# Entry
Amino acid sequence: MFARIKEDIQSVFHRDPAARNAIEVLTCYPGLHALLFHRISHWLWMNNLKWLARFLSSLSRWFTGIEIHPGAKIGRRFFIDHGMGVVIGETAEIGDDVTLYQGVTLGGTSWNKGKRHPTLKDGVVVGAGAKILGPFEVGEGAKIGSNAVVTKPVPPGATVVGIPGRVIVKTPEKDDSKRRHMEEKIGFDAYGLSEEMPDPVARSIRSILDHMHTVDMRLEQICKSLERLDENYRSPNLPPLNTEDFEGVQDEESQSFPNK
# Structure
């Protein structure tokens, strides 16, 4: 047991550069406290002391702000960074060397009994505020970007961002530095919002509108060239746009893309 606690403490040093010494980690890291509480409550749950397990789990939630159902299965070297608002459901399964940031939910989409929460394989990283909902697997080494909502299986080594979550990197590169560069360029971030994450649908529509604007400019240039070649040619007038249809669009876009 003490060897497992020591291993959990070491995992904090490996993934948090702010950690200075073992005493600080043991006394000041709520993610570690919640994990230690869970180790005990899970043992009670598995030995059919379910009320006591749930009671200890509730105490842990009061002290740490992290809710882990005692029935959840958690592997070795699990690390919750910051931790406030993390929720892990009863049938969730978490492998070794998994990292969760604050506000993560491993939840279900059904009230039926049985397996209804996700399974996270070894080495998964889940960014702040992400929601993984349903009884499916997130493959080994996958990364879930901040605030993503994932409702489908994720292949090993993939990076998922957006609402709804979509895969932007399907397989790990041989050169890990290239993969990290691609993730930063396209949108993976464990903490903040990237341009991709607030609303990928709105971003797609914005790209379509930019393309339409470019096409419209080229058509206008073609019409002007035809008028110069033929004095009798007159380009037809386009029907006017109803500006009422676009009221509020600019405000919504500025909310979705605050840095634009």
